[in-house]
Amino acid sequence: MRPIGTKNQLKAMSKDTITSGPKATTTDEFIKGLWRENPVFVQVLGMCPVLAVSNTAENALAMGLATAFVLLMSNILVSLLRDFIPKQVRIASYILIIATFVTVTDYAIQAISVELYKSLGAFISLIVVNCLILSRAEAFASKNSVGKSILDALGMGVGFTFALFCLGAVREILGNGSIFEWALFPEGFQNWIVMILPAGGFFTLAGWLLIINVIQTRKVKS
Amino acid sequence: MSTTAHTPKQDTSSSVKMLRAMLGIGILSAFLIVSAFELTLPRVEKLKAEALEKAVLNVLPGTESTRAFGISPQGELIELEKGDTPEYTCYAGYDQNKNLVGYAVEAAGQGYADLIRILYGYDPKEQILIGFQVLESKETPGLGDKIEKEQRFLDNFKALDVGVTPKGRLKNKVITVKQGEKQNAWEIDGITGATISSRAIGNIIGASTTELVPILHAYSLNMDAPDRHEKPVKSNE
Lengths: 222, 237
Prior knowledge:
The complex is a heterodimer. Chain A is an all-alpha fold. Helices cover 70% and strands 2% of the residues of chain A.
């Protein structure tokens, strides 16, 4: 069987080259990340945090927003410095820039609220190894203007947050019987513990990929 | 690979460019990180102190004022001064009538992901633990962090037995048992799905109470009259 991700990744990459060309409209840079080139459902990028922290809707949303912020800031800086960074050292430079903003985000969250830091602290540092951010720096921000890079980062960030929320909501509803810690089912409901364990992440992701692929295939056929 | 053969020989100017770029970004990164750290430090420290104060009030219900103590290796309670870092820290909590409510004790130990720092409340009159709160942990969100959120687990610490023998030793060491298998007042009912984290809490409390509860118990027996020198909560930041 052909792996779903590979086909979609190729599709997304080819689309990326098209949209990055001169014909791409400004709004398209934002919209593409939401659905057509969604970083999780279509490009299948950044799977480590997606599977690890989507066990509750709240964690998923918080992780999505923190990633979107780092993505936005790193895209801006990479785009600003794109003529200054020689291509031989570009990956090292991008990693340095991403790690910097992750650290800044970490301090900022600590200063905003102890409660927020307590619930997010464990996986903020995971953002450094999220290949979504590195791939947007390499594939987009290093070749495009600051304005376009901001729109791209916003689109991809919102798309990533949306996808994480889709996974987190399903896992929390089935695994904990609640959403945002509000109980949904009566007392007798037996929680599906497996859904909040790592295996549940794979089941839910597979389910969503199946739905998205069915929709995409029908669209192409029609 | 063939591409390597065709790569033009790098001249000094390209090396200088690379060095310049890396150095430039490195300095920029250092500047950003140091600025963020310096800017957030006062607020982070303030929030941490507030959180600790809230935690003390939480683990010792009914507390109106507190006093910080350090516990010396000889088993004596010493009043803390600014900058002191004793091996063990505890906070005595007093109610409106200046009567001792209990002691809030800080303890730490290895969890599943990293060190877990906790605070528990000890009532020397009843010889039980009356409160518990996690101060710092990096346990897996949604699984290990249930030790902070699950009410059924937190209910363990409303009256956890830490009685002391006449010889000044703990009668029974606190341990964590499997969920639903708690039979004795000194056992902590564990959590399925957070087995290692809930066991870690049992170990931390077990080790800390074995060592400190006899000291605190003896100290409270020696205190005839309630202390009148406690500071109001607000000034203890």
